[in-house]
C-alpha cells in the first residue's frame, strides 16, 4: 500500500465519529438533532430540519403515505463538521414509525447517545434500543434533557440507569437547579460553571457565560441553597462515584452523563465537545478473514438498510451501506460477497435530511446510499481486493404478529413474489405455521407501521389487496439447537411453534410471563430473543 493512501485513510478515521440517538418519543430527539446541526454549521437557524420536512413535496405514493400520517419513514444520515471532526449522525426512525430499521441502524453505529427526559427517566423504547446497543457493546453517552422544566432528582436518574440498565454512570457535568430555578451546569473537568440564559427558543447558538468555581461572583449569582446543594452533590459524586474510565465507556459498561436543555440550546455545545473526545472512532469489524481495521487499504462495507421507492420516477431502491474499510469512490466496481457477482456502484448518494446529494469519496464510518437494482439484501457485504464477508445483521425479536391473506386466488403469483421480495428487503419478518395445510404467511414486526407498509406496497407495487388478521402473541424466541433441541423436550405449554423463513423453529408466546414460565419448566431449552445470524 502506498504510504499516501495509508496516511489519507488514517486521517479520515481520526476525524470521524459516528453515532445514533436512542430515545423514547418526545424526549427531544428532533430538537437535539437540530441543535447539533446548528453547532455543526450545517444549518443556520434551528427549526430548519422540521421546516425542510414540511416543505417536502409529495413526490411519490410512498411519500404521500408519509405525509398523510405526518411521519418520516425514511431514516437518513446527517453529516456535519465540528472542531475539525466529521460527525455522522445516523437518524433512527423511532416514533410511530418504530420498526426493525431502527434496530438495524444501530448495527451501523459506533456510538449511541441515550436521550432521556429528566422528568420521565428511562422509558420503554429507550430500554429496547439500549438492549441492542448492549448486545453490540457500543459506547453509550447519556444526555438528560429538559432541565429547564421541573424534573426528577439528578442522583435518582443516575441511580435508575445503574440499577435498571446495569451501566455505571459518570456525570461529566452537573445541573444547578431545575425548572424555573435552572441556573446552569457545572463542568467537572474544567471545574467551571456555565450559566444558563434563556435564549429566544434557542434558535441561535446560546451565549455562554462561564465562571470558575472559586469566583467570588458565584454567591451573588446563585442563590445560597443552590450553591450549597451543588457543593454537597459534588462531594457526593467525588466521594462515592467512580472515576471516568474511558476503557469501560468504550466497552459499553460505563456511560458519561450530560445534563442540559436542547430546546434552549443549553449544554448542547459542551456535550458535543466532550462527546468528540470520548467517543469511539470507526473501529475494526469482525469478518470471515478475522478483524479488519478501518485503515485496511481495500474498500469494504455492509448493507444495513434498504429503502424502496423514494422516487416514483425511478421506482428505485436505495441500499444504505456502512463503509468499514478503505476508500469508497464513485463508479467503482466491487464484488458482492453473497452472490459472487461484480457490481458497479454508480449514483452514490450522501443523505442530508431528505435531500440526496451526490458524493465522490467516503471512508470508514461513513454511510452511503446506493441505487439497488435488486442485488442487495440486508447484511450483504461488498468489497474490493481479497474476499471478505462481515457478520450479517440478526433478526430482532418481533412483538406484533398477523396472518396475511390473499383473498384473490388469481393473484397468487404476485402475492408470493411480493411477500418474498418484501421479506428479502427486510420490510417485515415472515414466519409459517408448522401445519403444512396452513400456507398463509405470518407477518412478524416490531412496529405496527411495518404491517401497513407491507399491505400498502403489495397493493401499489404488486397489485394485490390483502387482509390482515392479528394474532394474540407478543413475544418470539428462537431455539438454540433448532428442531433437534426441541425434539428432546416434552410437550410445551402456552406456546405456539412456528418456523421462520429459514425453516428454523420459533416459539410464540402471548406474553412475557408465559415465556418466562416455559423457561422455568425447561431450563435445558436455550431460547434467544435474537435470531442467530446465518
Ligand atoms: P422527539 O419526539 O424525541 O423528536 O422530540 P421533539 O424534539 O419533537 O420534542 C418533543 C417536545 O419536547 C417538543 O414540544 C419540544 O419543543 C419539547 N422539548 C424538547 N427539548 C426540550 C427542552 O430542552 N426543554 C423543554 N422544555 N422542552 C423541550
Automatic annotation (TrEMBL):
GTP binds at residues 23-30, 91-95, 145-148. Its main location: cytoplasm. One of its GO terms (biological process) is regulation of translational termination. It is found in: Cytoplasm. Signal peptide: none annotated. The keyword Plastid does not apply. Increases the formation of ribosomal termination complexes and stimulates activities of RF-1 and RF-2. It binds guanine nucleotides and has strong preference for UGA stop codons. It may interact directly with the ribosome. The stimulation of RF-1 and RF-2 is significantly reduced by GTP and GDP, but not by GMP. Belongs to the TRAFAC class translation factor GTPase superfamily. Classic translation factor GTPase family. PrfC subfamily. This is Peptide chain release factor 3. The lineage of its organism: Bacteria, Bacillati, Cyanobacteriota, Cyanophyceae, Nostocales.
